[in-house]
Amino acid sequence: MVARQALKLGPRHAGKLVTVVIEDTHFRILHGEEEIAIKPRKDLTPVTRLYVRGKDTQPS
Questions:
Q1: In the prediction, which pLDDT does 55 show?
Q2: Any idea where the domains of the chain sit in the sequence?
Q3: What is the pLDDT of residue 5?
Q4: What residues does 1 pair with on adjacent strands?
Q5: pTM for the complete prediction?
């Protein structure tokens, strides 16, 4: 989930570490230098807080 919006990429990309670029009207999902997907934003209000959760993102 990014900015309260679920982004589905499919089983082909399961387990990959991706980078999500938040732009004005859409999310750009990258794996390394490869662009995996572009998803439109449903809520266009500014993103003011970031909370990252997943493997190796939280202190033990």
A1: 67
A2: 1-44
A3: 87
A4: none
A5: 0.77
User: Residue 48 corresponds to which tokens in the numbers above?
Assistant: 């003011």
What pLDDT is attached to residue 60? 64
Residues 11-36, mean pLDDT to the nearest whole number: 91
Residue 35 CA to its chain's centroid (Å): 12
36 token code pair: 């995996």
Sheet of strand 19-22: strand arrangement: 19-22, 26-31, 34-40
Contact 56, 18 (CB under 8 A): no
CB 27 within 8 A of CB 20: yes
* Average model confidence (pLDDT) across the chain: 87
Q: Across 1-60, where does the E strand assignment appear? A: 19-22, 26-31, 34-40
